[in-house]
Amino acid sequence: MRMLEPVVLxxxxxxxxxxxxxxxxxxxxxxxxxxxxxxxxSCPPADALMEKLVAKDHVIxxxxxxxxxxxxGWKDRFADPAYTARQKAYARSSGRNMVYTPQMIVNGIxxxxxxxxxxxxxxxxxxxxxxxxxxVMVERDGDRLRIGLLPLGEGRGGAYVLQLVRYTDERxxxxxxxxxxxxxxxxxxxVDGWETIxxxxxxxxxxxxxxxxxxxxxxxxxxxxxxxxxxxxxxxx
Length: 237
Prior knowledge:
12 strands, 4-stranded mixed sheet, globular, alpha+beta, 5 helices, about 240 residues, 4-stranded antiparallel sheet, Glutaredoxin, disordered N terminus
């Protein structure tokens, strides 16, 4: 990771209006993280709900597979202890002492338990209409991402982290053991990469560059440390 030259910074901040690369920037964008598991019998309805979420232009939907159900007969091949740790961190930051699946976390602060389309729709609508606090813009140049950060309004200082998330659009699994034995389930937007690429004070204009491998989609999240609220997000398909 390195800082960009001023001329590149100006380019990065103009991406939203000028670049032809598919982009969803921070305006009215809502991030939904689904914590799920192939070994959870309650999860398939929530996994199926992802189909509706990924079709919405203003929603970035991410499936994070956790590993704490692996002991009951089926090892989730997409699970990562890091996603379990992220879910536990959300629980701690909100004063909860347990985790479960399926759980959806919306913009880092609101949760929806299970597959409840109407409740989830209401939460997404509320976040989509909320005040925008920052803009994040992204341009891909070969194996590099150029990322520009712009505070909106007067800006709010704080401690924010920039996260690069990679996912695979669709993966289908035939499950032969455990609670979902006999089912063939298709999972959408399966997260298979998550890294912190920088930090931000929330009030200054900033530009950074990050390396990226492969042609899978990439998501940039700007999130309060904690983890806390996701204040901006952008996606490159």
